[in-house]
Amino acid sequence: MPQASIRGVVARILLATGLTAILGIARLNNQTVDSSELRVLARPATIPLSEARGASAPPVANATFTYGPSRLVIEVESVAHYPAQRAVVVRFRDGPRRCTQPHLVGRLSGPYVTLLTWDNVDQTADAKEMVGRYRVPAQGTYFVEIIGLLCNGLSFEADFKAVCLENPTSHRITDDFVTIDVVRTGAEIGEGAQSSGGGWERDKVGYWKWLPQNNATGEREPTEPLLTRYQPHECHLEADDANCVRALSLDQFRPYKFVYREQGGGESSREERIRHIAETVNRKQGQNPICICFVGTSHSREMAVAVNLWLKQWGLSNIVAHGATANDFTRFPAEVTNDRAQRILKKCHQTVLGISQWSLGRKPPGGRFSGMGPTPFQDYYKQIRDMLLLLRGFEIPNLFLRSVHHNPLGNLKTTCPPEDWRYPATVDMYNEIHRNLTAELGVPFLDTSDIIGPMWDSAHDFCHYRNDETSRAEALFVLGEVLGSGG
Questions:
Q1: Which of 112, 155, 237, 379 is 20 to 30 A from 396, comparing alpha carbons?
Q2: Dihedrals φ, ψ of 55, to 5°?
Q3: What are phi and psi of 305, to 5 degrees?
Q4: What are the tens digits of pLDDT across the range 266-320?
Q5: Each residue's pLDDT tens digit, 443-453
Q6: Is the pLDDT assigned to residue 34 strictly greater than 60?
């Protein structure tokens, strides 16, 4: 990309550092930005999410969990928006820092929702700044939230069992209601086109879109951002305390609906197209119903339930989704043995593998695996590879590996040390393992990250996507992919 001077325009981004930031020269893709164009406002400190929504958090009594430290926010110097580059840059202070390779999570919300994709500009052991790139289908004013998830990110070789997340009551770097003006959408970048960042961008399956008819308040435009939802340690899921009800609420997600991006720039729910595919398969089967098997544990069970709801809605009886039951759970990749492979071969016309939650999650207390930690990335890679090779050896027809579901920040994840490790940094690494292995071994990859990712904190119980717009959207996508593959 030719060298050029870019005039950066800082969005109304308020830092949680408590100090006025002064940025000298920021580098963005080997281009320079004149610091005279930059202006950053500051505020004293990030307040808890419950307070940010208008109420003080209740006092903690007999707390059984302890939050992790809050180290990252005080090391942030500035946050700037570069509209022409579709980039938000977080710059860190000079001098000694504890968080030299932080893991950030950023989300734009407004007309559409998208996650920021992060890269380290310097590509050094001590990241001076990080660039979050976005891509949305329409211009407009968007809220932006950036949180510090981990003081230092996880490497492929990492032992992350005792690694604590940043304190969620103070992990937000940006102010609650900061907005940016998006002037370049990324719609001009087609599949396989090179991005302004020098990398490669793939076309997204679709986006979550703010639709006024889904908004009970009747507002015609988004008036509040999607702020990261987490479970305060003092709030159990059925708590009736007003502050807990507010913190656990899913209301902020309700105005959004998933829409597909079609060729030519249009949008659709794709429901009619996928229904037509399903009706054609259903008709061809005659009196021989086909079985779509969702192999795994509770997440696979819930996906099968959501798929069956679509089939029931369409009145189709010759396609059945079979989800895992408690007596037939496949908790770990190693549990896919020759015997299980033979059962899959005998019963299933299509097989969707979702065997990851137990590898990262807390194991039931008092059970066989109680106290067992997460599966390290290197071990997980080998386990998934061995499982796929075994199933491929049995010539399992129409075999798919799906992406791992992101989990919201429940209390077991944010206690220090954590008791559950299903958070964005680990799930993203597991999904990268899936992406690489399926490409290597020629197994179709059902990547639902564009659906689950932007709504990663919307699961009611901080684990399962069930009976909600997210589970419906994902089930519709999976059904279309599985039946459209020739099944």
A1: 379
A2: -150, 150
A3: -60, -45
A4: 788 899 999 999 999 999 987 789 999 999 999 999 999 999 999 999 999 999 9
A5: 999 999 999 99
A6: no
Give the contacts of 436 (CB within 8 A, at least 6 positions apart). Answer: none
DSSP 249-300: --GGGTTEEEEEEPTTS-EE--HHHHHHHHHHHHHHHTT--EEEEEEESHHH
Contacts of 342 (CB under 8 A, 6+ apart): 394
Residue 378: C-alpha distances to residues 151, 176, 356, 383, 385 (Å): 22, 38, 14, 9, 11
For tokens 């570069």, what's the residue? 82
Q: Are 88 and 112 in contact (CB under 8 A)?
A: no
Q: What pTM was computed for the model?
A: 0.85
What is the Cα–Cα distance from 45 to 15, expressed in whole angstroms? 8
**SS3 call for 291:** strand
Using the structure block, give the residue that is written with the tokens 């829409």: 259
User: pLDDT tens, 414-425?
Assistant: 999 999 999 999
Tokens of 92: 């860190």
Helix (DSSP H) and strand (DSSP E) numbers for the chain? 11, 21
CB atoms within 10 A of CB 437: 18
